């Protein structure tokens, strides 16, 4: 019997989207919310930001584990939206959500998600990222206001949710869809395989 299959996965996240996405792997996992500091110095490249924050989220949970809980691989993840080199995180309120949508509509932007896996037993880490190009249709001011008012984008990077009503304002994507929703599953599966966890 492969001992590898006995390893647990801990998702270091408060995000219901990530929980839902990881559940599609059909392997058992546990969720432990991670409250890592999410500030980064100015001037960092998008991929550097998301890999650092994904790593921090996984590390916080790794360091909180009792020694008896260590037979696990801890997964952390972070998503940002980047338009013309400007990093957009989550909007503070409806007004900022509308402002973000105004800057994203009628053009393309890139969504970056970092993924970190930490071996709870050895502390070995692996961090990587994916980027996806998203094109949004041209929106009227009334449509921007209506979407912002829906509240759907308030806890999402870039103030929209491609998996929700936001699907109606996205005209196309290039790259991994799941990366936009917050967890690039094909990347995660490759990383987990490196830690001895096989999905297929
Ligand atoms: C662009 C986009 C982002 N998002 C989400 C993914 C992330 O959950 C969120 C970006 O915030 P993150 O800080 O990456 O994650 P989080 O705070 O939701 O969860 P945690 O740090 O505890 O893991 O935006 C969507 O759900 N749909 C989208 O279309």
UniProtKB/TrEMBL annotation:
It is an enzyme of class 3 (hydrolase). Pfam families: Maf (PF02545). The record marks 17, 79, 163 as: Important for substrate specificity. Keywords: Cytoplasm, Hydrolase, Nucleotide metabolism. GO terms for molecular function: dTTP diphosphatase activity; UTP diphosphatase activity. Its cofactor is a divalent metal cation. The keyword Hydrolase applies. The active site is at residue 78. It comes from the Bacteria. The keyword Cytoplasm applies. Transmembrane segments: none annotated. Its EC number is 3.6.1.9. GO terms for biological process: nucleotide metabolic process. It catalyses: UTP + H2O = UMP + diphosphate + H(+); dTTP + H2O = dTMP + diphosphate + H(+). One of its GO terms (cellular component) is cytoplasm. It is found in: Cytoplasm. Nucleoside triphosphate pyrophosphatase that hydrolyzes dTTP and UTP. May have a dual role in cell division arrest and in preventing the incorporation of modified nucleotides into cellular nucleic acids. HAMAP family: Maf (MF_00528). Belongs to the Maf family. YhdE subfamily. This is dTTP/UTP pyrophosphatase. It comes from Paenibacillus oralis. The lineage of its organism: Bacteria, Bacillati, Bacillota, Bacilli, Bacillales.
């Amino acid at each position: 019997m492969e001992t590898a299959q006995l390893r647990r996965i801990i998702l270091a996240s408060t995000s219901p989207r990530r929980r839902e996405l990881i559940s599609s792997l059909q392997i058992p996992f546990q969720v432990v919310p991670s409250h890592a500091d999410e500030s980064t110095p100015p001037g960092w490249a998008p991929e550097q930001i998301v890999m650092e924050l994904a790593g921090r989220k996984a590390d916080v949970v790794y360091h909180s584990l009792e020694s008896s809980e260590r037979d696990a691989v801890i997964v952390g993840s972070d998503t940002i939206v980047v338009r013309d080199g400007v990093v957009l995180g989550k909007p503070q309120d409806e007004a900022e959500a509308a402002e973000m949508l105004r800057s994203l509509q009628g053009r393309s932007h890139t969504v970056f998600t970092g993924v970190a896996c930490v071996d709870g037993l050895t502390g070995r880490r692996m961090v990587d990222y994916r980027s996806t190009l998203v094109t949004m249709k041209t929106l009227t001011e009334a449509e921007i206001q209506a979407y912002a008012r829906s509240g759907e984008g308030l806890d999402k990077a870039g103030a929209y949710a491609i998996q929700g009503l936001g699907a109606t304002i996205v005209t196309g994507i290039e790259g991994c869809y799941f990366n936009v929703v917050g967890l690039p599953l094909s990347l995660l599966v490759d990383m987990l395989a490196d830690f001895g966890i096989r999905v297929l």
